[in-house]
Batch of 3 targets.
Target 1
Amino acid sequence: MWLGMHRLWWLSACLLVACLPDHAVQGRAYEVRVPKSYDGTTPLPLVIMAHGYGATGQLQDSFFPVSNQVDAKQFLYALPNGTVDRFGKRFWNATEACCNSGRLAVDDVGFFRALVDDVKQRYPVKEGHIFLVGHSNGAFMSLRLACEASELFAGVVAVAGSTFEDPLRCGVGQPVPILLVHGDKDTSVPIEGRPGVFPGAKETGARFARRNGCTGTWRDGERLDLLGGADPESQQSLIDGCSSPGSVELWTHEGTGHLPLYDTRWTSKIIDWLEERAR
């Protein structure tokens, strides 16, 4: 009960505004969290959270608490915020499917480039260690950035998202490791996709694998315990034939919907996954 009330409090308090923002870029507030022991001079990896539609960076972190790894894993953690739409909800201009319903002229690829530049002006960022974690609309946005800013980002974790329906929209570029995470009971962004709107998770992964120069096909990997319960509930799938750093994986949460509730098991594992694939 307390956990549910806590999440509702965050939802009401942080839905339209950034909670305790540190900085701003292009008129949008964002926060940077740093390790408690940080000396301010050592270059550290940068992880950026791209929130889901209607959320904020801080709210998304309450659901996906990547911040609980900042001290243990020693990285900078940026929580930016999307643009407020006509419904009063924040969004990223990712693809036609999600989630710029008002067709506002928002250049979010440019925004994320400016965000990285702004963070670099404030903190020493370790080159080749800039990563994205996105959920839903933020996952769509993260995958767009893997297409259009591949030289900037060294890895993407995309939860409950997809890519452009038209494969030609994601052109050539540097290989970007992609970790797709999806619940097989997701009705908002179904794991099998929506024909004519956006591709399913395995098709999305296969497209990035081809873009990354991978030569193999999907195969099953390990069973993973990422959400609790008596038995591992997630199936790892991988595409073979990927040279470093272009690996592509899918972690399927069985029996899980659009918003998995994560703890340190998942957050620790994804940060390790990203760091292992740094350039």
Note: The chain has one domain: 18-276.
Target 2
Amino acid sequence: MGTITFDPAKRDYLLAVLRDLGGAAVAFSGGIDSTVVAKAAFLALGNRAVAVTADSASVARTELDDARRLAALIGIRHVVVRTDEFSNPAYLKNDGARCYHCKTELYTTVERLLPELGVPFMVSGANLDDLGDYRPGLVAAAEHAVRHPLQEAGFTKADVRALALHWELPTWDKPAAPCLSSRMAPGVAVTPERTKRVEDAEAFLRTLGLRECRVRYHDGDLARVEVPLGDVARLACDPVRSELARVLHALGFKFVTLDLDGFRSGSLNELVPLELKVQFKTKRETQ
């Protein structure tokens, strides 16, 4: 993970950015980035800050439980809203723009709630490192005037972890946990049955002591299991191999494969058509 260096000047800048908003609804997944923003918002704004967590078939139950516990730990107001992205055919199609449609649904839902919540702005946990990745959700954020305090205050992912550790937040070293729908390869339709299948498969992998793991869902009900390189050999050998295959077949996967390149975040982005990447990159640059 590298050296963790806390920068008090960046912390103070982050608090000032949020204080100047006068009130904010934090899009709160319970991941490290949104947890740091929620903590900062609570410190800067008190009861004028509220954490809003989306609940749908794409959210693992463990992640929703973690979000509730973290919000209570921080002390921030917490609201769980039901989002309905699964009723959107463009989302279900999963052509590479799924995240855009998901974030559009989230931000539209929260935007409608702002008067009831009594706050004027929505904020996200996006940091500077997110600008270098394929993030169509940032286009949706711009369309809904969502602010990104971590980016405004100059925070990289390493800065976020350092501040989380300084604040003694239990998520300071938490691996990224994107939504379950992100496990579907572009072109594989998103369904609640498939996200549940992935959720249960990854829950089994965690019983093997794995913190970072992904079960990528490919066409033909094929599971591509990604684990850190140091764990690949262990999963390839019996009795772990046979038990892994048995469990995933029982969940409904017809084929179970182990990726020899190991775990890497966002590997399915390699399958997003280049023209779609260019389209969203252009939108971000012109917003």
Note: The mean pLDDT is 93.
Target 3
Amino acid sequence: MGAITSETFNHKNPERLKFKAEPGINEELVRIISQDKNEPEWMLKKRLNAFRVFQEKEMPNWGPDLSALNLDEIYFYMKPDAKKNSKSWKDVPEDIRKTYELLGIPEAERSALAGVGAQYESEVVYHNLKKDLAEKGVVFLDMDVALKEYPELVKKYFMTNCVSPTLHKFAALHCSVWSGGTFIYIPKGVKVELPLQAYFRMNAKSGGQFEHTLIIADENSEIHYIEGCSAPRYSENSLHAGCVEIHVLKNAKVRYSSIENWSKNTFNLNTKRAVVYENGIMEWVNGNMGSNITMLYPCSVLIGKNSKTEYIGVAFAGKGQYQDTGCKVYHLAENTSSKVISKGISKNSGTTSYRGLVSIKKGAINSKSSVRCDGLMLDNQSKALTLPAMEVAESQVQVSHEAVVGKIQEEQLFYLMSRGLSEQEATKMIVLGFIEPVVKELPLEYAVELNRLIELEIENSVI
């Protein structure tokens, strides 16, 4: 990836759209989206049912305050003036292509990725998969295209037994207005050596983005999928309410890595959940830097014997930010295991909180779970909270939880500064050491990006 600066993410293009719905959400808009995409009747029915659930459910009344989010001001559907699913970056309009070049996406595709999808506003403008993987039966498509080309597979897995529209208000909202996203199917026994990546970019003011990611890893398969997200900053609020559904079938392994750096006027209310079958492995690697408010709790439902999940995440909150992140794990079968490591960093009155749940159901004997959540405050104005919950209904299990919250020690700063480092350099060194467990789980290019994002936050370069 190229050099990362504040301009990398705050670059904005003049608004150039083929279609822009009126702000706000109603049943007519839901029908317009479905009709515009020429969807089957069952998807329209699913959208309309979800819209009714959305209308009935209350806004979340716990965690961060969402009162500043006015859904009547959000544009829920915007189509960029660009060809869908271009196979060559040359076919992507120059202004949009420049945005992705600044973000380093074409460069990363050439050097380190097996395939890339790029979404701009409500539509995917670029999508490509290496030929050898397509020949092995790997499917990597824009979600809109997958609905047409693999309707039975989508109907079976789309918001059925993984994420239900009834889960919460923003899951229902997402199901009502979803657009674009990623569909991945890995056939039995296929192991994809290089990661696949999708990058989601919002550009317009008061925009909403609702991409849907659906990953099906068939038996004995393996995949690493990476998502990146960003948006330029405006004074108006934006909304991101995407959804990730992952199905890890018997003996399969999925790693999902995400670096989210939404602008600090964005409400990031994302839903991510995986269902893990017998001997399956689900790994989550999460980095949350931007947004005004983030509420994000990747969840693994361990329904098969000997299934495993690991979560490792870092969140950074600066001035005016509230990062409410964590992990949920449901142990529903015997010999299941989970490991959770969460790191929160707060500065300039920002707030990070770990909000997690481990639930071990009756009959899930010999299950194991360990949770560690650490909070690091860089000054006296910021907050770091830990809000773990454990529900254990079985006696033959091993469960541990450890939480450490504290400030940078003056002795550490003094020691490093006595060796010639400035206070800012010393702070960066301590913070980068603190997040090292997360960084080492990322491919090199993305580890460098995450480190640089943290450095920019500490330097106050990202506004």
Note: The first strand starts at residue 17 and ends at 20.
